[in-house]
Amino acid sequence: MTTATATIRGTPATAGQPHRSVERVRDILIVDDHPLMCDALALTLTISFGRKLVRTARSLAAALEQIRLHGPPDAVILDLNLPDARGAEGIVTLRRQLPDVPITMISADLENTMISAAMAAGAQGYVSKSLGREALVDSLRRMWAGERVTPEGYEPQAGGTGDAARAELARRFATLTPQQMKILRLICQGKANKEISYELSIAEATVKTHITAIMSKINARRRTQAVLLANSARLFEPG
């Protein structure tokens, strides 16, 4: 972990956001495919918070399996780009499994629209991978207490209309099943039904049934519209 420092901004918890006790965060799940980053984060959390349990997972699928086998953690630190999920997909998927658990997105990508997409998808906060230890610990402490934390310089769209629309879109995407999310990702890659059928080893008729359900859930009429909505939510980032 670098020793670079950076400023962060926060929004106090509102009536619609729970005020949590930092001390209740005893079980933390780190989801990051870089072993060195995982080890550095785990060591930082152990030293700074004295946590009893810090779990790690190298992919979104591994994180979901951890949750299935060992139960939900008290907090999650999630890398933006994973081998099986790039962009807001990771948060959308985990938020469906962990509706009340604070999820911190960590990334070197500080683009305004990406931060907006992550926060709209349900992140409690978004922090830079270049943060020094003290700044990171302070950010996590505030998020675990219920505060929404974003990098200094981040500017939500004026009036909040953009964030509200993204949040509503994220809620729609969160209704997709894991299989439907895979199919939507392949649609966004330009795959035809026959190609999707082959890649996922399912019947083409099953693909069509899933696509019909996807369109209904996200309120899209055509494939092109579904792709535009996914792009707007920054659901799948290019590898």
Automatic annotation (TrEMBL):
Response regulatory domain span = 27-144
Q: Where does the sequence pass through the membrane?
A: none
PROSITE patterns on file: HTH_LUXR_1, HTH_LUXR_2, RESPONSE_REGULATORY
**Which of the residues bear the PTM 4-aspartylphosphate?**
D79
- Mind telling me which SMART domains this protein's record contains? HTH_LUXR, REC
Record GO terms (molecular function): DNA binding
Start and end of every HTH luxR-type domain?
Answer: 169-234
Instruction: Kindly state which keywords UniProt assigns to this record, in alphabetical order.
Output: DNA-binding, Phosphoprotein
Which processes are annotated in GO (biological process)? phosphorelay signal transduction system; regulation of DNA-templated transcription
Q: Which residues are in coiled coils?
A: none
Family annotation (PANTHER family): HTH-TYPE TRANSCRIPTIONAL REGULATOR YHJB-RELATED
The identity of this protein, by name, is: DNA-binding response regulator
Organism annotation: Paracoccus contaminans
Source organism phylogeny:
Bacteria, Pseudomonadati, Pseudomonadota, Alphaproteobacteria, Rhodobacterales
